[in-house]
Amino acid sequence: MISFINDYSEVAHPKVLENLALLSNEKNPGYSNDKHSKIATNLIKSKIDDNNAYVQILVIGTQTNLIAAAAFLRPHEALITVETGHVHDHEVGSIESTGHKCITVKGESGKITIDDLKRVCSDKYWGNAGILNIKPKMVYISQTTEVGTFYTKEELTQIRKFCDDYGLYLYCDGARLASALDCSDVTLKDLAKLCDAFYIGGTKNGALMGEAMVIINDKLKEDFFYIAKQRGGILSKGFLLGIQFETLMSNNLYEKIGEHQNKMANLLREGLKKLNIEIINESKTNQIFAIISNNILDKLRNKFAWETINTSDDSTEIRLVTSWSTKKEEVNSFINSISEYLENEVC
Amino acid sequence: MISFINDYSEVAHPKVLENLALLSNEKNPGYSNDKHSKIATNLIKSKIDDNNAYVQILVIGTQTNLIAAAAFLRPHEALITVETGHVHDHEVGSIESTGHKCITVKGESGKITIDDLKRVCSDKYWGNAGILNIKPKMVYISQTTEVGTFYTKEELTQIRKFCDDYGLYLYCDGARLASALDCSDVTLKDLAKLCDAFYIGGTKNGALMGEAMVIINDKLKEDFFYIAKQRGGILSKGFLLGIQFETLMSNNLYEKIGEHQNKMANLLREGLKKLNIEIINESKTNQIFAIISNNILDKLRNKFAWETINTSDDSTEIRLVTSWSTKKEEVNSFINSISEYLENEVC
Amino acid sequence: MISFINDYSEVAHPKVLENLALLSNEKNPGYSNDKHSKIATNLIKSKIDDNNAYVQILVIGTQTNLIAAAAFLRPHEALITVETGHVHDHEVGSIESTGHKCITVKGESGKITIDDLKRVCSDKYWGNAGILNIKPKMVYISQTTEVGTFYTKEELTQIRKFCDDYGLYLYCDGARLASALDCSDVTLKDLAKLCDAFYIGGTKNGALMGEAMVIINDKLKEDFFYIAKQRGGILSKGFLLGIQFETLMSNNLYEKIGEHQNKMANLLREGLKKLNIEIINESKTNQIFAIISNNILDKLRNKFAWETINTSDDSTEIRLVTSWSTKKEEVNSFINSISEYLENEVC
Amino acid sequence: MISFINDYSEVAHPKVLENLALLSNEKNPGYSNDKHSKIATNLIKSKIDDNNAYVQILVIGTQTNLIAAAAFLRPHEALITVETGHVHDHEVGSIESTGHKCITVKGESGKITIDDLKRVCSDKYWGNAGILNIKPKMVYISQTTEVGTFYTKEELTQIRKFCDDYGLYLYCDGARLASALDCSDVTLKDLAKLCDAFYIGGTKNGALMGEAMVIINDKLKEDFFYIAKQRGGILSKGFLLGIQFETLMSNNLYEKIGEHQNKMANLLREGLKKLNIEIINESKTNQIFAIISNNILDKLRNKFAWETINTSDDSTEIRLVTSWSTKKEEVNSFINSISEYLENEVC
User: Fold this and answer.
1) Between vectors from CA A73 to CA A71 and to CA A78, what angle results, nearest 5°?
2) Which fold has domain B14-251?
3) Over the stretch A145-191, which tens digit does the pLDDT of each residue have?
4) Phi-psi region of D293 (alpha: psi -120 to 50; beta: other; left: phi over 0)
5) Residues B191, B193, B194: CA angle, nearest 5 degrees
6) What confidence category does residue C347 fall into, taking pLDDT thresholds of 50, 70 and 90?
7) How far is C225 from chain B (nearest CA, A)?
8) Scanning every residue of chain D, which has its alpha carbon at the shortest distance from the alpha carbon of B71?
9) Is D99 touching B (CB cutoff 8 A)?
10) Is B229's CB within 8 Å of D70's CB?
11) DSSP-derived 3-state class of residue D227
């Protein structure tokens, strides 16, 4: 079975496992006070060229996002997200469980727009009662988005400007940041300049697990560790996360993983397009949303795996994801199989 | 200044104040253990013909709604409301402050539709991740709605059926229930048959303050008092609320207040319509949403007060609300003033 | 039945009811934007001689305390209280419902001591894990305390000093502040100088209900109204609270109520002491805790009411509370009844 | 440096790392829907001889405990713990962050007693206001305790009986369960019979991380997964936890780890006792609390590591913990070093 279901289907990148095994006789202090966490932190600070940044590696994406809401927002402050945002429809109300509202906006191709923000930050739209309304405070974006698109530097710069004008924080969920860093014009340094906080995703980019929260805005740094610990986000064995990010941040491994994911995705995308298969929200990232006829999918099913998004009588929107482990041969096998079925169909 | 701004602009209905004054030498036990609270409770049970109902008078609407969410829902369960629902845009995120998500739907004329409910209760719409999604559990409606409409018995019956099919609770915010009881075909007994819980609003219907929560579904009754107390919803002087609801529920005072509100609103509505003024979401309740030219409003401003909903260069949508204290002469004065200005304008 | 059960057993002080009745034809804007709330606010600012204070009248004590916790503390910050503190054992976990821990200390005669504070603010006591522990942040006291004692100016000054040294807030629950202002050397101005925030209790001092939160520390003022509204603490008919505090704060009514409460309590206390009845935590406030033999109590029961604190085979600790409405004759009647029974017993 | 600081200082037991490496080419479905999680679940069910148990492997102890509070308790229900309980003083208020109070009791040698429970479950102790008080609902214990002791089967049986009588849940934190299973007379099957829920700790017993929540009481099972996901407790790569618990639960690895920890601890304990060093709360588990003179500790410091609990001018209470990796030679080296210093001191 060749799987394009997800980028979190395998244990970890071999280099990560190798380093964990190498260090298995080492004894480390707990709660991120170890040297590997410090090295990882310094590597990240150096990559973003900001020595004042606060870095804390947490475990899981949902947890990272809810800790951001708990730590950054006061009780009456809300987060703004597109409807397809992970915090809105894939986290069972994690943000609300910390007491904060998610204000949802439509967005375009999975991305929040300035018009979206204007609408919810004007009193007129968000009710007419002024002080009786929720206070929008933090813009949540993800890079790449849930629908496989990414923000350009120009788009992020405009959102940043809006946030400055309206006193909002900008927070970026980087669960799939490796892919975005490879195909967008937004670098890690740009993210650090444009966001108040963001996280560098490990789980979907070769780590066993781990998401490195990077806080730029001084106001948001104070006592972050306490709140992360309170919500169960701090591993006693924090050095495990330190070792992994030390590995990912060294020798450009993170960047190489992003590059490989996208290369495999492009191969897949171009192959599908040549076969006249419709791509939704086409982009250069490692997620492909394609509409394929049910006849073909029925024939692929015993050899390949994917995620179904939407299905109709004739065709189905599926999601294909590539990862650090995706092989060229696997992609070719998928394309060739469809090609064969299409030829047979024609006959 | 003649005010149509709201139905909570005055101290209280004279009968309420009279009874409070009459009983001012009485000493009563605290925390709703007094005879007036018991009498009020029994009057309500008798009106809804349900001796097993649990009744607890709370203080304020926002508080009542948030206590309902806290007491009725488990952490992963969400409330469904139309976008104009009070819990969504007039309570600064009160529901979320208890940890629960508000799922919003478009609605029609301020009312939730079966199509709305189908959409958010199907896995397909609300993300495609099954167990990763929020669990819709309680339908929030208000009678009357925030835009001045009301549900018919047929509409409520269909919503009830949907709730039964999908395992949802139906909860009704009755902040302006007196008006609805007068003009809709839904009686208090119907509400008690169709809802799992609802509240009978006092604040906007002649009381100083007070909202009587009525719980029908046995599952939702247990320890409600504890949770209400925890959230600051239980007055030590609970007898004050008891005396007021004893008053409102006696001699059909509540019903008479609803009737008067609607009578004055109808007078106002028909007067406006005769002057060809556009009414939005026309209904028979005590809230009127009308579009009036800015020229006219400028001239009315020094004599009358209203709430502005939306304004454009030419005209403005305003809200006019009648209350137990609104006088026929006040309504006529408003209509006549507009009429005069319109005649002058023509010349 | 003559009742010493509580100071919240009656509707309200006649002057409060009179003013509400007088203003019953007035229409007022909602949500504390009315002139009475402004006048009340200014009267309070003037009494505390601090024109920068932020004043917001809320409804109930439990609610006021939980809003203080929600608004003043970040998620990992805890409140410190004596074990007998209202927030710890009379509010069903209201503080915890906002996500904050109550750290409890023993105290002395219901009052927190510097030794208590030192113990919980040193790493050694509160676990030895530093960053893994809760962060003590707000000292909660009440004036008068739950056991009828009060803090002196010297005691409050020392607590303030400790708070300054350790970066803590000092918050005072003034549910029974009128009594304390009369018998302690702590004035309203002192409270405003020594506390970061405190509330002036209305409910137990002649109002129908209402507690005036006074915030002195600028850091704690921002957006307080939002959070109070979110938790259901803001009355749409806020002018009702404004009218009542305008009344209480005028013509020294609040001070007179405190004086009367204490005068009646002293009469009662001295009477009991003359009869050799043991007083617990003796003080000058309007709460008396006395140990009376069960034989006597059995005889008093059909004519007088009190609250039972603790009971043994022989005797019972009871609480007697005086209020604005307590009459000299009622006190004398109680003392005389005991005196008679005691004389008969001897024979 | 030989470390007795903790049992979570190393990457993982070699067998765990070996199995992760072996399976590194396998693709698994996400969110615990993989075969390894199923096998691990079945192994646990089989060990506790309860096929109806619900098992879900979570990531970290603090998280596991807070999810238990969130999922098992209604808002007004509190958890009871000894003062030294992990949830009380090592989790930054994690339980309170879910809205629930921790009622603390003194305990004896780190264990909750029936007298403790009686005190807080009687109205008289926990305030005298009945319905105004918190509702004690879940007894939290840990096996082994934070001070290195363990409950006997007789003690647990009595606590269970109390819980049955008072309608309480019994929940056991098994962070160090391997050690307890080896030295106490309480088996996994006993735990499953006596508790409503408990967790089998992985992090401190050879896993990278992972805690297997086992729910016995049917009432507590419903929708547990949702709430665990909402709080960030569900790994997308859940199979990582499945593989680890499959490993620990196979071939008695978990039992062997507990046996080894205790054997090393006993060696250490007996060695210290022979040198007349005082042991606090002596037990048979893998934590030793000993009082050693500061002179000796100063000499040990450059070769050995431990945790300091309390220190005075002369001596210090230290904690020594053994783990799956502790070697006999390391223990002997520690004992011998002390022995040498003691001999020198004498001279």
Assistant:
1) 135
2) Aspartate Aminotransferase; domain 2 (3.40.640)
3) 999 999 999 999 999 999 999 999 999 999 999 999 999 999 999 99
4) beta
5) 65
6) low
7) 10
8) D75
9) yes
10) no
11) helix
**Residue C291, C-beta contacts closer than 8 angstroms, at least 6 positions apart:** C277, C278, C280, C315, C316, C317, C318
Q: Is C312 on the interface with D (CB under 8 A)?
A: no
Contacts of C88 in chain B (CB under 8 A): none
Q: Tell me, what's the pLDDT at D89?
A: 83
Query: Which architecture, in CATH terms, is A2-6+254-346?
Result: Alpha-Beta Complex (3.90)
Average pLDDT over residues B16-44: 95
Question: Which one of D71, D98, D225 has the shortest CB-CB distance to B131?
Answer: D225
Is 3.90.1150.10 the CATH number for C2-6+256-346? yes
* Contact present, B210 and B177 (Cβ < 8 Å): no
Q: What is the mean pLDDT of residues A45-64?
A: 98
Whether the per-residue pLDDT at B346 is higher than 70: the answer is no
| B40–D contact, CB cutoff 8 A | no
Tally of helices (H runs) and strands (E runs) in chain B: 14, 13
- Alpha-carbon span C137 to C72, nearest angstrom: 9
Q: Which DSSP string do the residues of B274-336 spell out, in sequence order?
A: HTT-EEES--SSSEEEEEEEHHHHHHHTTTEE-EEEEE-SSEEEEEEE--TT--HHHHHHHHH
Between chain B and chain D, the number of residue pairs with CB atoms below 8 A apart is 41
Nearest-10 Cα torsion for B286, B290, B296, B300? 20
Q: Which residue of B has its CA nearest to A102?
A: B101
The model's confidence at residue A279, banded by pLDDT at 50, 70 and 90, is: very high
The shortest C-alpha distance from C11 to chain B (Å) reads 5
Q: Which architecture does CATH list for D14-253?
A: 3-Layer(aba) Sandwich (3.40)
For residues A290 and A322, the answer to whether their CB atoms sit within 8 Å is: no
Determine the average pLDDT of the residues in C119-134.
Answer: 69
Q: What is the pLDDT of residue B125?
A: 56
pLDDT, position C262: 98
Look at residue A127 and tell me whether its pLDDT is greater than 60. Answer: no
| CATH code for the domain defined by D2-6+259-346 | 3.90.1150.10
Selected for mutation to probe chain C from B1, B2, B3, B8 (highest C CB count within 10 Å) is B8
Q: Where are the domains of chain A?
A: 2-6+254-346, 14-251
Interface membership of A319 toward B (CB under 8 Å) = no
In this prediction the ipTM stands at: 0.95
Does residue C340 carry a pLDDT above 70? yes
Interface check for A226 against chain D (CB to CB < 8 A): the answer is yes
Using the Cβ of A226 and the Cβ atoms of chain C, whether some distance falls under 8 Å is answered with yes
Q: Tell me, what's the pLDDT at C130? A: 62
Q: Please answer yes or no on whether D236 and A30 come within 8 Å at the CB atom.
A: no
Nearest chain C residue (CA) to A222: C74
- Other beta carbons within 10 angstroms of residue A83's beta carbon come to 14
> What is the pLDDT, as a whole number, of residue C131?
64
For residues A306-326, average pLDDT = 95
- Provide the token pair at B98: 């208890």
Are the Cβ atoms of C230 and B94 closer than 8 angstroms? Answer: yes
Nearest residue, CB atoms, D92 vs list C98, C132, C308: C132
CB contact, 8 Å: C122 with chain D?
no
Decide: C238 and C57 in contact? Cβ < 8 Å. yes
Do residue B70 and residue D71 have CB atoms under 8 angstroms apart?
A: no
DSSP string, C311-343: E-SSEEEEEEE--TT--HHHHHHHHHHHHHHHH
DSSP strand pairing (D2-3 vs C304-305) = unpaired
Q: What is the pLDDT of residue C125?
A: 57
Confidence of residue C95 (pLDDT cuts 50, 70, 90): very high
Of C19, B202, C81, A23, the residue nearest D17 (C-alpha): A23
Amino acid at residue number D279: I
% residues pLDDT > 90 (chain D): 92
> Does the pLDDT at position C345 exceed 80?
no
